[in-house]
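User: Here's a chain of 330 residues. Predict its fold as tokens.
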Amino acid sequence: MKIALIGATGLVGQVMMKVLEERGFPCTDFFPAASERSVGKLVNFMGKSYKVVSIADAVKARPQIAIFSAGGSVSKAWAEKFAANGTFVIDNSSAWRMDKQIPLVVPEVNANTINSQTRIIANPNCSTIQMVAALAPLHIRYLIRRLVIATYQSVTGTGVKAVEQLKNERTGKEGEKAYPHPIDLNCFPHGGDFLENGYTAEEMKLVNETRKILGDPRMHITATVVRIPVLGGHSEAVNVAFETDFQLADVRRLLENTPGIVVQDEPSKNIYPMPLYAKDKDEVFVGRLRRDLSQPNGLDMWIVADNLRKGAATNAVQIAQYLLEKGLVK
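Assistant: Prediction complete.
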């Protein structure tokens, strides 16, 4: 089994190697690839040291699976070249997500959209992944009519430079800035570029990707993305309006029986999801389940997950595992 990892030296790439190791993913040949300035650097994977190669050399190796985490421009330039060699490409960027011919996959929700002809598979945005994982079983049961979303996103979602900015600010050290404002002791409603409609790119990803994954292009969705000074993961306050009524006990039971979901919902004991405790975990944590008292068939929920793991690396590796389990790649 030949595996290529494009963006192996990045924050998400490092977590992807960790998740592949933890899950014992079968790999006889590993090709860590990155930009030209990283070629020749060493990375450790499954107890061995590997030299970083160029993306062109990774293509020539004809791996069965190539996992991309190097940004949209790199994916656009190279994904189809891997696919032309018969490689299954799992892409973590936004490059292919809204392409009608490309499946956008959260394995617990819609892995069935992958078939033997698929060669490029899109990994959704980190905030979308954790939210649809929790919403999918509820949508099947009660049919979601409208979503109002506010996210509270970790600086790790921006990358190494943002993590360093936060650490520098906390120690009073000058350094390179990832954000237009201080992030320590602050939060700002700005994730991705602002668009002409007044929303940011991150907010529109939540709108468009959720519709595609849940298979409902008419679902009413609005979102506000907020960046906060935490490292452990992304949090989301989600208000759901259903077509049909529900019992809270049934909602809780449904979520508790959903693979990958952990319900933490005992407010009287101060038990609810928090990014501090979601860090380095693969599950999606759900709590603060309560009726929206302002409208019929309304539910409020709080959803937390490690954005580098389930929001990126783990989801991609789960897709690769699905390819193996279904015999699509050998």
